[in-house]
Amino acid sequence: MTKQVLLLPGDGIGPEIVAQAVKVLDVLNTKYNLDINMTEGLVGGAAYDVHGHPLPDETLKAALAADAILLGAVGGYQWESLDISVRPEKGLLGIRSNLKLFANLRPAMLYPQLANASTLKPEVVSGLDILIVRELTGGIYFGQPRGIRTLENGERQGYNTYVYSETEIKRIGHVAFQAAMKRNKKVCSVDKANVLEVTELWREVMTDLAKEYPEVQLSHMYVDNAAMQLVRNPKQFDVIVTGNMFGDILSDEASMLTGSIGMLPSASLDAHNKGMYEPSHGSAPDIAGQNLANPLATILSAAMMLRYSLGREDLAVKVEQAVSAVLDQGLRTGDIFSEGMTRVSTSQMGDAVVAQL
Ligand code: NAD
């Protein structure tokens, strides 16, 4: 049956990079029997400008109906002074929570061709292949109560609430253990159990869950140590599982180990593998509209979509191999450019991947 894919290009470089992934998906549709129908919607600042809201009803409806969503990025300088309730990022958070996309998968992989792009020594990062599994719909980003209140002495106080239920911890734990079963069978659960009760419970639940996966080796690490270990010796990790806020920070740190945020895809999944796929980077307003952005993270996000939501592992592998072949040819956008390589634009990079396919 034809699967429905909703494209949400969003803001900044979003439209340019999503266009490259669409070229790739078009080829798969015509040459490799990928039976998908793509439609486009508005999200983020682009949606605010038209509808006065970053997640209009029609976009949410289309997102709920789709089998998978491919998103570019949201945000930009011109929307930064808006009230927090209608900022572009609210569009993303709204899709994540309405679709119950509780599991965020962010691989940090260093392509051997880019070993010199990292700011760390090649021997520390070469061959790096870790997966960060971040809980996405709970924790301190969503906990109630929250707000800014005025105390009796007239001073204002900001407050947020850090909560996780056993059910929330278990379901993200399962995702991490199952991912580890397909990889190197190691899970490191990151918490701050020495200070926060909520993560004391997190540690307890993860330890219990590990009994269901006897082949997987579970370890625990405090988040401050994890931040340090990721830079000191990142290859010690296979799968890292953690809560929303720690995952937000650690996954950005991990992505920079590889040298370019322009290379890293991500997936946000619900309990039935329906998902939203997007590059790990933002809307890069500084280079938007100039045909400079690296589209590979978006193309690799489309590969993750093929793998997790569209049941086409074969095509996911084809796309990943095409990306690797293009790097072998020495083609580089500005963010991953180095001496002796061929500098290409966003659309040329997309064309090169298409040519490989
Ligand atoms: P950013 O990721 O957009 O940019 C950081 C730096 O990386 C910039 O110098 C940018 O030019 C570069 N960069 C990012 N993606 C690139 C690519 N594909 N190719 C080449 N270079 C690339 O982060 P930021 O500057 O902190 O945020 C800019 C805007 O993006 C903000 O409005 C922010 O809120 C938003 N943002 C959105 C998302 C999302 O949509 N998921 C995530 C993070 C930030």
Automatic annotation (TrEMBL):
Annotated catalysed reactions: (2R,3S)-3-isopropylmalate + NAD(+) = 4-methyl-2-oxopentanoate + CO2 + NADH
Database matches in InterPro entries: IsoCit/isopropylmalate_DH_CS, IsoPropMal-DH-like_dom, Isopropylmalate_DH
Location in the cell: Cytoplasm
GO molecular function: 3-isopropylmalate dehydrogenase activity; magnesium ion binding; NAD binding
Domain of life: Bacteria
Binding-site positions, substrate: R96, R106, R134, D224
Record NCBIfam families: leuB
Entry function: Catalyzes the oxidation of 3-carboxy-2-hydroxy-4-methylpentanoate (3-isopropylmalate) to 3-carboxy-4-methyl-2-oxopentanoate. The product decarboxylates to 4-methyl-2 oxopentanoate.
Subunit structure as annotated in this protein's UniProt entry: Homodimer.
Family: Belongs to the isocitrate and isopropylmalate dehydrogenases family. LeuB type 1 subfamily.
Protein name: 3-isopropylmalate dehydrogenase
Designated gene of the protein: leuB
